[in-house]
Specification:
With 123 residues, the chain is mostly beta strands. Helices cover 0% and strands 60% of the residues.
């Protein structure tokens, strides 16, 4: 059975950094797309960042471009999100997700979700 195991995150002051990681477990071959979503008002959730194979194509929400960096270790089926210059508006639950297909800000197909990590940024 496939599942996603998240780690990292926590609390930080504005301007600080956090790193969250996600391991894709039980896959015979790594999921093509992995990324992080967070809930936002007026929408179920937004894709914060994603990375796909082959080619390591990345996507970033406009609100995090230049501050967040997503990376992937294909040999370990893990993805990490380095979050720098965090602001109070970044406070949220961050959910790791994996899917067979992704394009732009959308994941397609059978999507697997992690349990979520709470990241809190204080002013």
């Amino acid at each position: 059975q496939v599942r996603l195991a998240e780690s990292g995150g926590g609390s930080v002051l504005a301007g600080g950094s956090l790193r969250v990681s996600c391991a894709a477990l039980g896959y015979s071959a790594g999921p093509n797309c992995m990324g992080w979503f967070r809930p936002i008002p007026g929408k179920i959730r937004e894709l914060v960042a994603s990375i796909s194979i082959p080619g390591a194509t990345t996507y970033y929400a406009s609100s995090v471009k230049g501050r967040f960096t997503i990376s992937r270790d294909n040999s370990e089926n893990t993805v990490s999100l380095q979050m720098n210059n965090l602001q109070p508006e970044d406070t949220n639950m961050y959910y790791c997700a994996a899917a067979p297909v992704c394009a732009g800000d959308t994941f397609y197909g059978a999507t697997v979700w992690g349990q979520g990590t709470q990241d809190t940024v204080s002013a």
